[in-house]
Amino acid sequence: MKELVEILAKALVDHPEQVEVNEVVGEQSIILELKVAQDDMGKVIGKQGRIAKAIRTVVKAAAIKEEKRVVVEII
Predict the structure, then answer these.
(1) What is the dihedral of CA 6, 11, 15, 16, to 10 degrees?
(2) In this structure, are residues 46 and 6 in contact, taking their beta carbons and an 8 Å threshold?
(3) Are 54 and 65 contacting, i.e. CB atoms less than 8 angstroms apart?
(4) Shortest CA distance to 73 belongs to which of 17, 1, 18?
(5) Sign of torsion over alpha carbons 27, 22, 45, 68
(6) Is the Acyltransferase keyword given for this protein (predicted)?
(7) CA distance 62 to 75
(8) CA angle 49, 44, 32 (to 5 degrees)
(9) pTM across the whole model
(10) What does the pLDDT read at residue 48?
(11) What CATH number corresponds to the domain at position 5?
(12) Considering Cα of 4, then 70, then 28, then 65, what sign does the dihedral take?
């Protein structure tokens, strides 16, 4: 999951070297914290959050295959 979010984010931003994904494993879910450069924040979120929602949808679909619950946070 972590690699999937990283690949998607690096494809969207101007500064792919500043993309960081931290994985926090909880009891029932996995939280993926996505950090990007301040300039690239709008590109990852998109108009009205459409790109962020699309990233979350793709990750959620991949998580269902592995029977896990994954939350993507953009910080």
Answers:
(1) 40
(2) no
(3) no
(4) 1
(5) negative
(6) no
(7) 22
(8) 95
(9) 0.90
(10) 97
(11) 3.30.300.20
(12) negative
Helices 50-65 + 2-12 axis angle, to 10: 150
Pair of tokens at residue 58? 């793709």
**Both structure tokens of 20:** 């960081």
Q: Which residues, at least 6 apart from 71, have a Cβ–Cβ distance to it below 8 Å? A: 29, 30, 31, 32
**The domain containing residue 61 runs over which residues?**
1-74
Q: Closest Cα to residue 21, out of 62, 59, 74, 61?
A: 74
Tokens standing for residue 42: 């709008």
pLDDT per residue rounded down to tens, the chain (75 residues):
999 999 999 999 999 999 999 999 988 899 999 999 999 999 999 999 999 999 999 999 999 988 889 999 998
Determine the Cα–Cα distance for residues 59 and 37; give it in Å rounded to an integer: 21
